[in-house]
Write a structure and sequence with these properties.
- The structure is a homodimer of 418-residue chains.
- Chain A has 15 helices and 16 strands.
- Chain A has a seven-stranded parallel beta sheet. In chain A, strands 5-4-3-6 form a four-stranded parallel beta sheet, with helices on both faces. Chain A has a three-stranded antiparallel beta sheet with strand order 1-2-16, with no helix packed on it.
- In chain A, helix 3 packs antiparallel against helix 7 and helix 5 runs parallel beside helix 6.
- At the A-B interface, helix 10, helix 15, strand 13 and strand 16 of A face helix 10, helix 15, strand 13 and strand 16 of B.
- Chains A, B: It catalyses: L-glutamate 5-semialdehyde + phosphate + NADP(+) = L-glutamyl 5-phosphate + NADPH + H(+).
- Chains A, B: Catalyzes the NADPH-dependent reduction of L-glutamate 5-phosphate into L-glutamate 5-semialdehyde and phosphate. The product spontaneously undergoes cyclization to form 1-pyrroline-5-carboxylate.
- Chains A, B: Pathway: Amino-acid biosynthesis; L-proline biosynthesis; L-glutamate 5-semialdehyde from L-glutamate: step 2/2.
- Chains A, B: One of its GO terms (cellular component) is cytoplasm.
């Protein structure tokens, strides 16, 4: 029953996708603007649906953090609407001729950007992802199947209805934007295997959700998310800059994937930088510090760091610290414990900056800047569907082009192969 | 036991990959030349190992076609060696700065091409794939785990030893080129789940092999292969050109994925083009024709085409034919039965050429040329690891850049996020 419903929705998405790919940018942008207006016009409806989710969430004793992510307000609805308007203002990647050339036999070959088709998005509590994902997929000519978390089901359902209706009224084929209409977990299992109708799956959420998708999907997946990020303070670093960057990378928003989790410090500068830095992190930012033996020898109040701590993405005001012999040990540590997301070195040494960026294998490698910049907006993409932590198709912040694929078009005048 | 052996090989590959990514093009190219020389110098050894496989193949009563693919000769060994030399002569994609820009806050962001890491190649009988794949992966700085077909095990083993030794002697880290050292099928199952050590799997071979990999792998897969390709002859086509292209697309090499399987003909020109074309295909090229009712009304000796025939990649001298009302019916037919590989229209109508290339969703869409050109060499890439039939990462012929991924390197001078 659940299976049949999901398949029926996916079929409808595939039919819509076939038409969507050939719509002009003007039609898509007009629809995005109409969706934004509809969200604002129907704010009360959305808040009413959200209050049902909030009530249920409080009864289920969801954490304060989770309830805050679930909560919608007038301002937050307006932000979602403005997000759609910002997407409308971005250039349309579909139709871009990436490269075109002529072969000696006269064949003219062009590589053209085209929509992927149907994108399945599986995500957790935030209702704003519903709007974001729908907007980004529509802009890139893809149909989207949205599977949000059950905690936000009423909010997501109302939002999806409103934007899908607005889109259809503006000339977008019905079925282009659909929320999976059940909270039954079986629906996810069905989506994972729907190779016939879904072209790409993007999971967004905690490690458990992402691993479930990666381990069980036969549909190609873009893995997002886990970031066990490091900052390495070299012995040739500007220590004031280093402190500034560490504090920013750890505390500016600790619950996100590009926040720093482990600090590595060259032993020659450890006794100079660690006392003021760790004291400040503890006293002004309430960060719990877990360090190696050498760290504790310098700052005695630090707790023991376990092997496990170095593997952990805390997503919290907890920092692991390790004093290292040199940059090589730092790079080896990152290789062993890192998740290839975002890594930074603080140094004024030219050769070390080159070696670090060359030898550290990660989506984003920084010299003298905070890891917190790994983000589609910070990179100037104007949008972000997630941060890929895999190497296939997309790596790092994914903007609009990452939601497209390519096709070759070949123009001849009778060429045959000899 | 098999599992432990495969994991040990994969670990070694991962270690090698860490160093391989930072080798200069000069070192890699020198190694490729040394591998080529070693193959030629040890031709006798290779032919001896191949004769064991050939003997076993004859005893197992493999088909003549399969035995021919398995067979190595002096010339074929020389071709493999020349293939490596050609790869050495290609530009190295690793290190290419695809794009670099500066943000308003002064951060300089660059997107750089880097190796993927470890590539697992699972393939069937041809021993030349062993050399090709090893050469392409080495050129792009990737370690490769080769899992060839059991029929070619002795040939592959000898070849892999020779090229791996030559590579190591030329400065390539040991473990960069490895053949999985068992014919046990369990080895494939182990590879499919080795996310910790293998970054990408590329299956090359029949539909059964590819589906096994796609259905069971947790490692990201690049799907290759199945091509149910169509040629549509429009009512505004140059019919001589159309006949030429159809004959080429069907008969020049019928056993490959870019060969044509179904011919679609506009009803207005069917009675003019089908009799000479189908007679020629039958009489001069020994092609079996299976047609729709309308085809049979025009050419009575044609056999019945079943629904199943239109879904089938014959890979043989068999052609399905359907007379269609117009281009829309042709496009709908391709949408329903096609595998999104290579599709062609023969027309002199400008608007139809535009609509066909826009509306047909396939890796390669042709106007007035044979589908047989979907090939890395024909596209001018100088190499080919396979033809991707998926939309993620790579689509169509895959050359050297498709064996790489990217990373962002970000240069700052103390930037933190506000």
């Amino acid at each position: 029953m659940v299976k049949e419903k999901v398949i029926a929705q996916a079929q409808k998405a595939k039919e819509a996708a076939r038409k969507l790919g050939h719509l002009s940018s003007a039609v898509k942008d007009k629809a995005l603007m109409a969706m934004a207006d509809a969200l604002e016009a129907r704010t009360d409806d959305i808040l009413e649906a959200n209050s049902i989710d909030m009530q249920a969430g409080r009864e289920k004793k969801l954490s304060t953090a989770l309830l805050d992510r679930l909560l919608l307000t007038n301002d937050r609805v307006k932000e979602m609407a403005d997000g759609l308007r910002a997407i409308a203002a971005l250039p349309d990647p579909v139709g871009e001729v990436i490269h075109m050339w002529k072969r000696p036999n006269g064949l003219q070959i062009g590589k053209i950007r085209v929509p992927v088709g149907v994108i399945g998005l599986i995500y957790e509590a935030r209702p704003n992802v519903t709007v974001d994902a729908a907007g980004l997929c529509l802009k890139t000519g893809n149909a989207v199947l949205l599977r949000g978390g059950s905690e936000a089901f009423n909010s997501n359902k109302r939002i999806a209805e409103i934007i899908a209706d607005a889109a259809t009224s503006a000339g977008i084929p019905a079925g282009a934007i659909q929320l999976i209409e059940t909270t039954d977990r079986e629906a996810v299992n069905v989506m994972l295997k729907l190779n016939e109708y879904i072209d790409i799956l993007i999971p967004r959420g905690g490690a458990g959700l992402i691993q479930t998708v990666v381990q069980n999907a036969t549909v190609p997946v873009i893995e997002t998310g886990v970031g066990n990020c490091h900052v390495y303070i070299d012995n040739e670093a500007d220590l004031d800059m280093a402190m500034n960057i560490v504090i920013n990378a750890k505390t500016q928003r600790p619950g996100v994937c590009n926040a720093m989790e482990t600090l590595l410090v060259h032993e020659e500068v450890a006794d100079k930088v660690l006392p003021p830095l760790l004291n400040k992190l503890r006293d002004e930012y309430n960060v719990e510090i877990r360090g190696c033996e050498k760290t504790k020898a310098i700052v005695p109040w630090v707790k023991d760091a376990t092997e496990e701590d170095y593997y952990t993405e805390f997503l919290d005001l907890i920092l692991a610290v390790k004093v290292v012999r040199d940059m090589d040990e730092a790079i080896d540590h990152i290789y062993k414990y890192g998740t290839k997301h975002s890594e930074a070195i603080i140094t004024n040494n030219y050769n070390k900056s080159r070696r670090f960026t060359e030898e550290v294998d990660a989506a984003a490698v920084y010299v003298n800047a905070s890891t917190r910049f790994t983000d589609g907006f910070q990179f100037g993409y104007g949008a972000e569907i997630g941060i890929s932590t895999q190497k296939l198709h997309a790596r790092g912040p994914m903007g609009l082009p990452e939601l497209t694929t390519t096709k070759y078009i070949i123009f001849g005048n009778g060429q045959v192969r000899g």
